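Per reviewer request, we include the raw input and output of the structure prediction for the construct analysed in the revised manuscript.
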Amino acid sequence: MTSAHASHPFIREAAAGNFDAIARIYAHYVLHALATFEETPPPVDDLRARHAAIVGAGMPYVVAELDGVVAGYAYASAYRPRSAYRHTIEDSVYVADAASGWRCSAR
């Protein structure tokens, strides 16, 4: 498969080489938004560890490419550890600031 042109994002599983881009995207949200509940951007290795835990639990972790560049990422994870929530997942979607308006998150 090839990457899509800017009008059509290409969605695929996150790969090891994507985590510098993922860290930059996430850092923007940590520094300029409230939704992450983090005060400082985590190191890339922390994001890799989070990815491993999510994928290890059988949940998806994907990136969206525009013209071959990671323009966003998304994942699903367990909502809460209590048994009543065992069938409930939470999704997280982050789009690069430069890609907002390209409908990267619409697919």
